Amino acid sequence: MAESTDDSSQVVREQSESVAATNLKVLGDTPSFYTSMGYANATSHQQAMNTVQLATVAKMVDLIANTSPSEGGSDSAALGMLAKMMGNVPPVTP
After folding, report:
1. Mean pLDDT calculated for residue range 16-34
2. How many domains would you assign to the chain?
3. Which residues make Cβ contacts (< 8 Å) with residue 90, sequence separation at least 6?
4. Domain that includes residue 71, residue range
């Protein structure tokens, strides 16, 4: 009923090799995991910046379309601030 010592030491050796192989695989996969995560974060950030840029352009178009000369300087000042903001938006990098 009891296993011999040779059999149990062989089982322990095989388990140790299996654990070592699994650890090696995890260590090998880690850089690609974090690289993929970085690309996902960059893509998400780029999409968010595109949304901000679209909203800003839409607001500028609305101000231009709805500004009448009789309204004075309040709309012109807001339009100038928006135009200045658009000049400070960093370029989209691939």
Report:
1. 88
2. 1
3. 49
4. 5-87
